[in-house]
Design goal:
Oligomer: heterodimer
Order of helices and strands of chain A: HHEHEE
Strand content of chain B: 25-35%
Distance between the termini of chain B: 48 Å
Helix content of chain B: 25-40%
Distance between the termini of chain A: 118 Å
Low-confidence stretches of chain A: none
Largest interface: A-B, 19 and 33 residues
Strand content of chain A: 5-15%
Strand order of the largest sheet of chain A: 2-3
Helix content of chain A: 40-55%
Order of helices and strands of chain B: HHHEHEHEEE
Radius of gyration of chain B: 25 Å
Mean pLDDT of chain B: 91
Number of strands of chain B: 5
Number of strands of chain A: 3
Shape of chain A: elongated
Protein backbone atom coordinates (compact mmCIF):
# COMPACT_ATOMS: atom_id res chain seq x y z
CA UNK A 1 0.00 0.00 0.00
CA UNK A 2 2.84 2.28 0.88
CA UNK A 3 4.50 1.66 -2.49
CA UNK A 4 1.20 2.38 -4.29
CA UNK A 5 0.90 5.80 -2.61
CA UNK A 6 4.53 6.46 -3.40
CA UNK A 7 4.04 5.58 -7.09
CA UNK A 8 0.95 7.82 -7.30
CA UNK A 9 2.84 10.68 -5.71
CA UNK A 10 5.71 10.27 -8.20
CA UNK A 11 3.24 10.15 -11.13
CA UNK A 12 1.45 13.29 -9.98
CA UNK A 13 4.75 15.04 -9.46
CA UNK A 14 5.80 14.11 -12.97
CA UNK A 15 2.52 15.29 -14.55
CA UNK A 16 2.16 18.51 -12.55
CA UNK A 17 4.74 20.61 -14.48
CA UNK A 18 3.25 19.55 -17.83
CA UNK A 19 -0.25 20.49 -16.70
CA UNK A 20 1.06 23.77 -15.35
CA UNK A 21 2.83 24.49 -18.64
CA UNK A 22 -0.39 23.80 -20.54
CA UNK A 23 -2.31 26.11 -18.26
CA UNK A 24 0.33 28.79 -18.67
CA UNK A 25 0.32 28.43 -22.48
CA UNK A 26 -3.36 29.38 -22.65
CA UNK A 27 -3.62 32.89 -24.05
CA UNK A 28 -6.19 35.43 -22.83
CA UNK A 29 -9.66 34.52 -24.10
CA UNK A 30 -8.34 31.28 -25.66
CA UNK A 31 -10.73 28.35 -25.55
CA UNK A 32 -9.47 25.90 -22.92
CA UNK A 33 -10.60 22.99 -25.13
CA UNK A 34 -8.47 24.10 -28.08
CA UNK A 35 -6.38 20.93 -27.84
CA UNK A 36 -9.37 18.79 -28.95
CA UNK A 37 -9.56 20.60 -32.28
CA UNK A 38 -5.78 20.81 -32.62
CA UNK A 39 -5.39 17.04 -32.15
CA UNK A 40 -8.18 16.38 -34.67
CA UNK A 41 -6.63 18.53 -37.42
CA UNK A 42 -3.01 17.54 -36.75
CA UNK A 43 -3.81 14.15 -38.28
CA UNK A 44 -5.73 15.63 -41.24
CA UNK A 45 -3.41 18.49 -42.14
CA UNK A 46 -1.46 16.66 -44.83
CA UNK A 47 -4.48 15.52 -46.80
CA UNK A 48 -6.33 18.83 -46.44
CA UNK A 49 -3.46 21.05 -47.55
CA UNK A 50 -2.38 18.92 -50.51
CA UNK A 51 -4.75 20.79 -52.85
CA UNK A 52 -3.49 24.26 -51.95
CA UNK A 53 -2.85 26.33 -55.03
CA UNK A 54 -5.01 24.12 -57.24
CA UNK A 55 -8.50 24.25 -58.72
CA UNK A 56 -11.05 21.73 -57.59
CA UNK A 57 -13.41 21.04 -60.48
CA UNK A 58 -17.01 20.50 -59.50
CA UNK A 59 -18.57 21.39 -62.84
CA UNK A 60 -22.08 20.78 -64.14
CA UNK A 61 -23.38 20.18 -67.66
CA UNK A 62 -25.16 23.19 -69.15
CA UNK A 63 -27.26 22.96 -72.32
CA UNK A 64 -25.57 24.25 -75.45
CA UNK A 65 -27.54 24.43 -78.71
CA UNK A 66 -24.45 24.03 -80.90
CA UNK A 67 -23.04 21.14 -78.87
CA UNK A 68 -26.43 19.46 -78.92
CA UNK A 69 -26.56 19.89 -82.69
CA UNK A 70 -23.14 18.28 -83.10
CA UNK A 71 -24.17 15.46 -80.77
CA UNK A 72 -27.34 14.83 -82.77
CA UNK A 73 -25.30 14.72 -85.98
CA UNK A 74 -22.80 12.27 -84.47
CA UNK A 75 -25.64 10.09 -83.19
CA UNK A 76 -27.30 10.14 -86.60
CA UNK A 77 -24.06 9.16 -88.36
CA UNK A 78 -23.44 6.40 -85.85
CA UNK A 79 -26.98 5.09 -86.34
CA UNK A 80 -26.66 5.12 -90.12
CA UNK A 81 -23.33 3.34 -89.95
CA UNK A 82 -24.86 0.66 -87.73
CA UNK A 83 -27.82 0.42 -90.08
CA UNK A 84 -25.53 -0.03 -93.10
CA UNK A 85 -23.59 -2.74 -91.29
CA UNK A 86 -26.82 -4.42 -90.33
CA UNK A 87 -28.12 -4.33 -93.90
CA UNK A 88 -24.85 -5.72 -95.18
CA UNK A 89 -25.17 -8.62 -92.79
CA UNK A 90 -28.83 -9.08 -93.69
CA UNK A 91 -27.96 -9.17 -97.38
CA UNK A 92 -25.73 -12.15 -96.74
CA UNK A 93 -28.63 -13.88 -95.05
CA UNK A 94 -27.83 -13.23 -91.42
CA UNK A 95 -28.93 -10.60 -88.94
CA UNK A 96 -28.21 -10.19 -85.24
CA UNK A 97 -31.88 -9.41 -84.75
CA UNK A 98 -33.58 -11.90 -87.08
CA UNK A 99 -30.99 -14.66 -87.51
CA UNK A 100 -30.69 -16.52 -90.83
CA UNK A 101 -33.47 -15.38 -93.23
CA UNK A 102 -32.46 -15.97 -96.84
CA UNK A 103 -35.86 -15.62 -98.55
CA UNK A 104 -37.37 -12.51 -96.99
CA UNK A 105 -38.47 -9.90 -99.57
CA UNK A 106 -38.20 -6.22 -98.57
CA UNK A 107 -38.65 -4.36 -101.85
CA UNK A 108 -34.94 -4.35 -102.77
CA UNK A 109 -34.04 -2.40 -99.60
CA UNK A 110 -31.81 -5.27 -98.51
CA UNK A 111 -29.36 -4.27 -101.23
CA UNK A 112 -26.08 -2.68 -100.23
CA UNK A 113 -27.04 0.55 -101.99
CA UNK A 114 -30.72 1.28 -102.32
CA UNK A 115 -31.27 3.61 -105.29
CA UNK A 116 -34.03 6.13 -104.45
CA UNK A 117 -36.90 6.41 -106.93
CA UNK A 118 -36.01 9.98 -107.94
CA UNK A 119 -32.62 8.79 -109.21
CA UNK A 120 -34.08 5.95 -111.32
CA UNK A 121 -33.98 7.91 -114.64
CA UNK A 122 -30.30 8.84 -114.17
CA UNK B 1 -0.92 19.89 -123.13
CA UNK B 2 -0.97 23.49 -121.88
CA UNK B 3 -4.53 23.04 -120.66
CA UNK B 4 -3.52 19.89 -118.86
CA UNK B 5 -0.68 21.68 -117.06
CA UNK B 6 -2.98 24.55 -116.10
CA UNK B 7 -5.56 22.13 -114.81
CA UNK B 8 -2.90 20.30 -112.79
CA UNK B 9 -1.63 23.56 -111.25
CA UNK B 10 -5.17 24.70 -110.41
CA UNK B 11 -5.92 21.36 -108.76
CA UNK B 12 -2.65 21.50 -106.81
CA UNK B 13 -3.37 25.05 -105.58
CA UNK B 14 -6.87 24.12 -104.53
CA UNK B 15 -5.70 20.98 -102.76
CA UNK B 16 -2.79 22.64 -100.96
CA UNK B 17 -4.90 25.59 -99.79
CA UNK B 18 -7.75 23.46 -98.52
CA UNK B 19 -5.58 21.03 -96.54
CA UNK B 20 -3.16 23.44 -94.87
CA UNK B 21 -3.62 24.90 -91.40
CA UNK B 22 -2.93 28.58 -91.00
CA UNK B 23 -1.43 29.90 -87.76
CA UNK B 24 -1.17 33.59 -86.95
CA UNK B 25 0.47 34.84 -83.79
CA UNK B 26 -1.59 37.33 -81.83
CA UNK B 27 -1.00 39.46 -78.77
CA UNK B 28 -2.15 37.88 -75.46
CA UNK B 29 -3.98 41.16 -74.80
CA UNK B 30 -6.03 40.89 -77.99
CA UNK B 31 -9.66 39.94 -77.48
CA UNK B 32 -10.61 36.97 -79.63
CA UNK B 33 -13.95 35.32 -78.90
CA UNK B 34 -14.52 32.17 -80.92
CA UNK B 35 -16.86 29.82 -79.11
CA UNK B 36 -18.18 31.98 -76.30
CA UNK B 37 -16.54 29.79 -73.68
CA UNK B 38 -14.14 30.97 -70.99
CA UNK B 39 -10.95 32.20 -72.66
CA UNK B 40 -7.74 34.12 -72.06
CA UNK B 41 -9.51 37.48 -72.20
CA UNK B 42 -11.78 36.46 -69.31
CA UNK B 43 -8.81 35.25 -67.31
CA UNK B 44 -6.96 38.51 -67.97
CA UNK B 45 -9.96 40.65 -66.96
CA UNK B 46 -10.30 38.72 -63.70
CA UNK B 47 -6.58 39.03 -62.99
CA UNK B 48 -6.59 42.80 -63.64
CA UNK B 49 -9.59 43.35 -61.37
CA UNK B 50 -8.29 41.15 -58.55
CA UNK B 51 -4.70 42.42 -58.50
CA UNK B 52 -5.90 46.01 -58.47
CA UNK B 53 -8.43 45.39 -55.70
CA UNK B 54 -6.33 43.27 -53.38
CA UNK B 55 -3.37 45.65 -53.29
CA UNK B 56 -5.51 48.77 -52.81
CA UNK B 57 -7.63 47.30 -50.00
CA UNK B 58 -7.19 48.30 -46.35
CA UNK B 59 -6.18 44.89 -45.03
CA UNK B 60 -2.46 45.47 -45.73
CA UNK B 61 -2.26 48.74 -43.79
CA UNK B 62 -4.39 47.36 -40.97
CA UNK B 63 -2.10 44.35 -40.69
CA UNK B 64 1.02 46.49 -40.67
CA UNK B 65 -0.43 48.75 -38.01
CA UNK B 66 -1.04 45.84 -35.63
CA UNK B 67 1.88 43.54 -36.50
CA UNK B 68 4.43 46.04 -37.89
CA UNK B 69 5.57 43.49 -40.48
CA UNK B 70 4.41 42.62 -43.97
CA UNK B 71 1.51 40.15 -44.13
CA UNK B 72 2.33 36.62 -45.28
CA UNK B 73 -0.15 34.95 -47.62
CA UNK B 74 -0.60 31.35 -48.77
CA UNK B 75 -2.78 30.43 -51.74
CA UNK B 76 -5.44 27.87 -50.92
CA UNK B 77 -7.88 26.06 -53.13
CA UNK B 78 -10.20 27.53 -55.75
CA UNK B 79 -13.46 25.66 -56.35
CA UNK B 80 -14.67 25.67 -59.94
CA UNK B 81 -18.45 25.21 -59.71
CA UNK B 82 -19.16 26.52 -63.19
CA UNK B 83 -20.20 24.55 -66.28
CA UNK B 84 -16.76 24.74 -67.90
CA UNK B 85 -13.24 23.63 -67.20
CA UNK B 86 -11.62 26.79 -65.87
CA UNK B 87 -8.12 26.66 -64.45
CA UNK B 88 -7.92 29.28 -61.72
CA UNK B 89 -4.13 29.22 -61.74
CA UNK B 90 -4.20 31.41 -64.86
CA UNK B 91 -5.41 34.42 -62.85
CA UNK B 92 -4.31 33.44 -59.33
CA UNK B 93 -0.69 33.46 -60.54
CA UNK B 94 -1.15 37.08 -61.62
CA UNK B 95 -2.37 37.94 -58.11
CA UNK B 96 0.66 36.16 -56.61
CA UNK B 97 2.94 37.97 -59.02
CA UNK B 98 1.44 41.32 -57.99
CA UNK B 99 2.18 40.51 -54.32
CA UNK B 100 5.83 39.92 -55.10
CA UNK B 101 6.19 42.95 -57.39
CA UNK B 102 4.44 45.34 -54.99
CA UNK B 103 6.74 44.24 -52.12
CA UNK B 104 3.83 44.87 -49.75
CA UNK B 105 2.90 41.23 -49.21
CA UNK B 106 5.03 38.12 -48.65
CA UNK B 107 4.06 34.83 -50.17
CA UNK B 108 4.72 31.25 -49.02
CA UNK B 109 4.40 28.06 -51.00
CA UNK B 110 1.66 25.56 -50.29
CA UNK B 111 0.33 22.25 -51.57
CA UNK B 112 2.48 19.99 -53.69
CA UNK B 113 5.20 22.58 -54.15
CA UNK B 114 5.61 22.81 -50.39
CA UNK B 115 5.81 19.03 -50.16
CA UNK B 116 8.49 19.08 -52.83
CA UNK B 117 10.44 21.66 -50.83
CA UNK B 118 10.21 19.56 -47.70
CA UNK B 119 11.32 16.50 -49.62
CA UNK B 120 14.31 18.43 -50.92
CA UNK B 121 15.11 19.52 -47.37
CA UNK B 122 14.85 15.91 -46.21
CA UNK B 123 17.23 14.87 -48.98
CA UNK B 124 19.71 17.50 -47.80
CA UNK B 125 19.80 15.97 -44.32
CA UNK B 126 21.77 13.03 -45.65
CA UNK B 127 23.39 14.32 -48.83
CA UNK B 128 24.26 18.02 -48.47
CA UNK B 129 27.25 19.48 -46.63
CA UNK B 130 26.62 20.59 -43.05
CA UNK B 131 27.15 24.22 -44.02
CA UNK B 132 24.63 24.20 -46.86
CA UNK B 133 22.03 21.90 -45.27
CA UNK B 134 18.70 23.61 -44.61
CA UNK B 135 17.01 22.95 -41.29
CA UNK B 136 13.46 21.82 -40.62
CA UNK B 137 11.14 23.93 -38.51
CA UNK B 138 12.17 27.32 -39.88
CA UNK B 139 9.42 27.83 -42.44
CA UNK B 140 7.56 31.14 -42.53
CA UNK B 141 4.01 30.69 -41.30
CA UNK B 142 1.23 32.38 -43.26
CA UNK B 143 -1.05 35.02 -41.72
CA UNK B 144 -3.71 34.84 -44.44
CA UNK B 145 -5.04 32.29 -46.90
CA UNK B 146 -6.38 33.19 -50.35
CA UNK B 147 -9.27 30.99 -51.43
CA UNK B 148 -11.81 31.31 -54.18
CA UNK B 149 -14.71 30.04 -56.19
CA UNK B 150 -15.94 30.26 -59.78
CA UNK B 151 -19.68 30.07 -60.44
CA UNK B 152 -21.75 30.35 -63.58
CA UNK B 153 -25.35 30.67 -64.70
CA UNK B 154 -26.40 29.63 -68.20
CA UNK B 155 -29.64 30.79 -69.77
CA UNK B 156 -30.52 29.38 -73.16
CA UNK B 157 -33.46 29.62 -75.51
CA UNK B 158 -33.15 27.95 -78.90
CA UNK B 159 -30.09 29.51 -80.56
CA UNK B 160 -29.51 32.31 -78.04
CA UNK B 161 -27.46 31.79 -74.95
CA UNK B 162 -26.42 34.06 -72.12
CA UNK B 163 -23.57 32.92 -69.90
CA UNK B 164 -22.78 34.65 -66.65
CA UNK B 165 -19.59 33.97 -64.68
CA UNK B 166 -18.83 35.13 -61.18
CA UNK B 167 -15.31 34.74 -59.84
CA UNK B 168 -14.73 35.30 -56.14
CA UNK B 169 -11.43 35.44 -54.29
CA UNK B 170 -11.34 35.91 -50.55
CA UNK B 171 -8.58 36.47 -48.06
CA UNK B 172 -9.04 35.07 -44.58
CA UNK B 173 -7.02 35.52 -41.40
CA UNK B 174 -5.87 31.99 -40.56
CA UNK B 175 -5.77 32.56 -36.81
CA UNK B 176 -9.14 34.24 -36.38
CA UNK B 177 -11.03 32.99 -39.50
CA UNK B 178 -11.92 36.62 -40.18
CA UNK B 179 -12.44 37.42 -43.86
CA UNK B 180 -10.42 40.58 -44.48
CA UNK B 181 -10.97 41.00 -48.22
CA UNK B 182 -13.32 39.72 -50.91
CA UNK B 183 -12.78 40.40 -54.56
CA UNK B 184 -15.29 39.60 -57.26
CA UNK B 185 -15.48 39.84 -60.99
CA UNK B 186 -18.58 39.33 -63.06
CA UNK B 187 -18.50 38.48 -66.74
CA UNK B 188 -21.56 38.06 -68.96
CA UNK B 189 -21.66 36.95 -72.59
CA UNK B 190 -24.42 36.57 -75.12
CA UNK B 191 -23.83 33.91 -77.74
CA UNK B 192 -26.02 33.58 -80.82
CA UNK B 193 -25.61 30.43 -82.86
Amino acid sequence: MKTLYLSLAILLAALAPAAQADAQALLPNQNPNYAVSRDKYMGLADSLTRLHGTTQHDTYAAPDWYEQKLQRRDDRREFRQQLRLERARYHRGYSDYYGYQPYRYDGHRHQRYYRPWWLWPF
Amino acid sequence: MRILVLFFLAALTLFSSSCSRRVVRISPDQQVDISGRWNNTDSRLVAEQMTGDILRADWITEHQQTKTVKPVVIVGMVANKSHEHIEAETFVKDVESSFIKSEKVRLVQGGKKREELRAEKADMQTNATSASMKKFGLEQGADYILQGSINSIVDQHKRDRVVYYKVNLELTNIETNEVVWIGEKEIAKKVTN
